[in-house]
């Protein structure tokens, strides 16, 4: 079974890279220094700085591994280079309206950069799957946990190059 690439925008990849660099270049070295200092203070079994530091170091190393795997699998797609701007594709910002005339603006982004509160939904989310390939004026039915809902595409925008 071949896994689908980790599609991501350039901004999303930059955010992953920044987080990795911050953890690896700043937080981890400071923490190693604190752990070394705490280890030199003697009894480690009741040394809070040492115990907490080792626990936090494991968390950082786990996150570094995760970020490394996500960046390695990443396929950066620049939505500004999308040729067919009349249809919803990865990176599109879409204005939609439901049956109650409630407007919503969503941007289809990679899994690692999704933030529903900011209007950035994962490329794999039910709404994004329903909107893929839609043009202005198309009505799409979205299968949600609360039941089906229909949305009409009002506008499609892509970032400028």
Short structural description:
The protein is an alpha/beta fold and 161 residues long. It has helices spanning 10-39, 48-73, 126-131; strands spanning 6-8, 74-76, 93-98, 103-109, 120-122, 139-144, 147-157. A hairpin with a 4-residue loop joins strand 3 (93-98) and strand 4.
Strand content: 15-25%
Structural class: alpha/beta
If classified by CATH, what would the architecture of the largest domain be?
Roll
Kindly give the count of domains. Answer: 2
Mean pLDDT: 91
Order of strands in the sheet with the most strands? Answer: 5-4-3-7-6
Overall shape: elongated
Specify the helix fraction band: 25-40%
The arrangement of helices and strands along the chain is EHHEEEEHEE
Number of helices: 3
Could you name the ranges where pLDDT drops below 50 across 5 or more consecutive residues?
Answer: none
Number of strands: 7
Can you give a write-up of this model?
This protein has 161 residues and is an alpha/beta fold. The chain folds into 2 domains: 6-76, Transcription elongation factor, GreA/GreB, N-terminal domain (Helix Hairpins); 79-157, Chitinase A, domain 3. The protein has 3 helices and 7 strands, in the order βααββββαββ. It has helices at residues 10-39, 48-73, 126-131; strands at 6-8, 74-76, 93-98, 103-109, 120-122, 139-144, 147-157. The chain has a 5-stranded mixed beta sheet with strand order 5-4-3-7-6. A two-stranded parallel ribbon has the order 1-2. A hairpin with a 2-residue loop joins strand 6 (139-144) and strand 7. Pfam families: GreA_GreB, GreA_GreB_N.
